[in-house]
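FORM 7B - TANDEM STRUCTURE REPORT

SECTION 1: FIRST PROTEIN
SEQUENCE AND TOKENS:
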Amino acid sequence: MTEAVTARLREMRWWDIDPVLELEKDLFPEDAWSRGMFWSELAHARGAEATRRYLVAEQDGRVVGYAGLASAGTEGDTGSARGADVQTIAVAREQWGTGLGSRLLTELLKAATAFDCAEVMLECRVDNVRAQKLYERFGFEAIGFRRGYYQPGNVDALVMRLTDPAASLRQEAASPRHEEDDQGTDTHG
């Protein structure tokens, strides 16, 4: 296991896109997001009408992780609950096993709670068992597959759902750390 996380988490801003893209291309060479995708997401991350929450983790002036969440739906006359989707979580390889993936996911679940989301969904590569273990520890359950979701590699995605993000945060805060489960948290949605 590597040393505990010392990275500082903060809101992702437009000037973070280039360092995030470098990490993105290293971790997801076949299905990396484009600059435009990050710009589009960040366009919805600020102000009173914000529906996104994007974070970066910095250590020694360098981006070593990032994560993003999108909320959708409304509570109201239709009775439909707000939901959120984990769009991406990535941790630099040298940070695997430090607990940074857990910290990023915790912040996304806090954002989902602040957005009044009743559930959080995500897609995870079927071959990314490390990330699946992290999500399961937070209470996510597998509910299905998306065949060929990750392109161009044609890799299937495991669809996971968390039905009560606030309860998951309380449970995670009360449980002992399992940093070894955070190795290689590099999910893409």
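SECTION 2: SECOND PROTEIN
SEQUENCE AND TOKENS:
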Amino acid sequence: MPLKLALPKGSLQTSTLRLFERAGYHVSVSERSYYPSVDDSEIEAMLIRAQEVSRYVEQGVLDAGITGSDWYKDSGADLVTVAELVYSKQTFSPCHWVLAVPVDSAFQTPEDLAGKRVATELVNVTRRYFEARGVPVEVQFSWGATEVKPPVLADAIVEITETGSSLRANHLRVIDTLLEVKNCLLANRKAWADEWKRHKLESLAMLLTGALVAEDKVGLKMNVPRTKVDEVLAVLTALRRPTVSPLSDPDWVALETIIDERTVRDIIPRLKRAGAEGIVEYPLNKLVY
């Protein structure tokens, strides 16, 4: 019986499918279809709004699914977190739910909003946030376009942001952060107790996590004279000690390592000056520890 897996439809869909591609899974989505095909006969996928994934996984309609930790926490569902996957719709960095107010308002802290209206899609998390601070507010569910509601329809909002550009465009400023969002691979407890499904989920989590870890890494390989090995090693900042292999010429070795992509442009010239030759940079799809 295949693993029934929910994938998020909407803003996270493209980045999720791209992550699966990097992890080695080709997911094909037909126009107007909610049942994408996966080139793994052991996975049966369905596209569902991220806000609803936790509900259907908990009910057992689906074995597992990917959704944000925000919607998972808001739902109150009892699920197993198989893996945390840090990526968002535009980047591979987490998003945040923030409390925001009009730029020219007098509100400076959450306590200043006592007795006021707060609009949000994340109703339960927002209510718990204010209750924990003893601040009475009216939390109103927002069907969207939340940023345009202050100050006429609401005094403040709790909204998700990735870059902050939408908040700035609507003349809002952040006065607190409620939650950092990490996407999660979640499973219901019945599926997790099934040995085959658990093994399948653990393998899937390993590959997805490996693809995320490799996102900002690259591989480097080069040839180095034996007399220059120590100088070249002194230049490298590696995840682990570089691999050094003998070549047919006893006076040379091959050296291979993995480094942060952002350091490559600085390191390659230094490697060349230290004596390395034939330097090759190559991308990584997955990095599994």
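SECTION 3: OBSERVATIONS ON SECOND PROTEIN
The chain is about 30% helix and 35% strand.
The two ends are 30 Å apart (CA to CA).

SECTION 4: SIGNATURE
Preparer initials: ____
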